[in-house]
Amino acid sequence: MIEVRNLVKNFGPFTAVKGVSFKVEKGEVLGFLGPNGAGKTTTMRMIVGFLPPTSGTAVICGHDVVEQPVEAKRMFGYLPENAPVYDSMLVANFLSFIAEIRGFKGAEKKERVESAIRKCHLESVRYQSIGTLSKGYRQRVCFAQAILHDPPVLIMDEPTDGLDPNQKHVVRMMIKQMAAQKSIIISTHILEEMDAVCTRAIIISNGSIVFNGTPDELRSRSPSGRLDEVFRELTLGKEEKVNA
Amino acid sequence: MPRVRNVFVVLKRELMSYFESPVAYVFMVFFLLLIGFLTFSVSRLYERNMADLQPFFFWYPWVFLILVPAATMGLWAEERDTGTIELLLTMPITLAEALLGKFLASWLFMAIAIALTFPVVVTVAILGDPDMGAVIGGYVGTLMLAGACAAIGMLTSSMTRSQVISYVISFTICLVLLLAGWEPITGFFSKWAPAWLVDTVAAFSFIPHFEALRRGVVDLRDIAYYTSIIVFMLFATHIVVENRKSA
Q1: Per-residue b or e along B77-102, where b marks 16 or more CB atoms closer than 10 Å to that residue's CB
Q2: Cα–Cα distance, B154 to B156 (Å, whole number)
Q3: What is the pLDDT at residue A232?
Q4: DSSP of A80-143
Q5: Between B43 and A24, the higher pLDDT residue
Q6: Which of A72, B42, B134, B227 could form a disulfide with A65 if both were Cys (CB 3.0 to 4.6 A apart)?
Q7: Is residue A100 less than 8 Å (CB to CB) from chain B?
Q8: Which residues of chain B are under the pLDDT cut of 70?
Q9: Cβ of A90 and B20 within 8 Å?
């Protein structure tokens, strides 16, 4: 469903992503891990066609995101980092705009908006201006826009960042409920999150993949079975390890 | 080719966002107050005893200079600042559709403000017998001028995430384009610069192209001038957004 082929991104002389390749099949939830600044967001932005890759490409449900961006963009829902939404709009109007831009009309548009509101538990704030919502609600509004068209692929950049434990739980439950029918990529720097929802993990450090396997495989790499130790081992340079 | 439907969806959202915040109302009220004050108190429309709208249309370039950059400064800068640009540009539409929708929304917004000046026309029509050709020409010129200013404003908005910077730059560009053909300025330069140079610079100015329309002479060359400014600015915006998405 998602095939990432040798993505490279240079910002001037700096190479942020150095040839990242992987595949995600239907039913998989891929946890995309790495320390801050490892290239997670840049990689995701290239997969969704927001940033043009220096080389390489991503293919989503058979559509090359560089060659056929509009077709590829129909196939996924995307939750960008920090869940950006239009503050001046009402929740219902915002979702209605998303439904329209995704090509729904009339009764179907209404139905899509209603179902997104239901799934993300937004009934109580539907006529509220987004700017007045708490962080948790904003996150859910942005989540609602990502699943509104019931896409086969979901790509989420730190979907639980800044949420309280209850809100995190709600978001994780929503992801788990959808996991069977979709291919999902979630980026995070929280290890427990990966353990809670992901079927597979990729760890990226300094722009390259340093681990690709199941959470259990990752755990088995450490004698103590602690994820944070493996994570440190994989993502820190030699000198940093001494200082850490 | 941009699909009309997608352009329309973006246009609708942009226009809604003007009216969902106080921006639209503050803008319209001050626009109408300013144009009314300048027409009636500064140019003394009544005291002239002439049933025409020359003094009314005369002020538009200067009012636009102050207000249009304010109406357009948020178009891209705000999307960049809040990160919604990432949402918009990962929707299944092309960049050309997004920016056409945005531009047309700001132009339409200006057109609504301009249309609200109709009582001035009605007043003059009741008091006398104005040359309707000149009135229509004046409004066509005003609309084209608004479009050109809005396109410049959209370009500067795409270059930065700061709305203030966008305002200052588009204000300056519009000011230069206004003054390049303004009589006191061209008069000053014509004292020492060769005539062809003065004329060439003045030809790029808003004013001479606006003056003809204001007198009721709808010349295709003037329309083409404004159209080419708009098209050029849209292309430039496309290039800027494409290259600086994450900046």
Answers
A1: bbbbebbbbbbbbbbbbbbbbbbbbb
A2: 6
A3: 82
A4: -TT----TTSBHHHHHHHHHHHTT--HHHHHHHHHHHHHHTT-GGGTTSBGGGS-HHHHHHHHH
A5: A24
A6: A72
A7: yes
A8: 246-247
A9: yes
CB pair distance less than 8 Å for B17 and A51? no
CA distance A154 to A137: 19
A89–B16: do the CB atoms touch at under 8 Å? Answer: yes
Which residues of A are less than 8 Å from B20 in CB distance? 88-90, 93, 129
* CA-derived radius of gyration, chain B: 19
pTM: 0.91
Chain B contact present for A39, CB below 8 A: no
CA distance A39 to A46: 11
Q: From the list A78, A80, A88, which residue is nearest B20 (CB)? A: A88
Q: What DSSP assignment string belongs to A169-212?
A: HHHHHHHHHHHTTSEEEEEES-HHHHHHH-SEEEEEETTEEEEE
pLDDT in tens, A74-121: 999 999 998 999 998 999 999 999 999 999 999 999 999 999 999 888
Angle at A196 between CA A192 and CA A199, to 5 degrees: 115
Residue in the structure block whose two tokens are 């962080």: A135
Q: Quote ipTM for the complex.
A: 0.90
Set of chain B residues whose Cβ sits within 8 Å of the Cβ of A86: 13, 17, 82, 84
A40 in reach of chain B (CB within 8 A):
no
d(CA B137, nearest CA chain A) in Å: 37
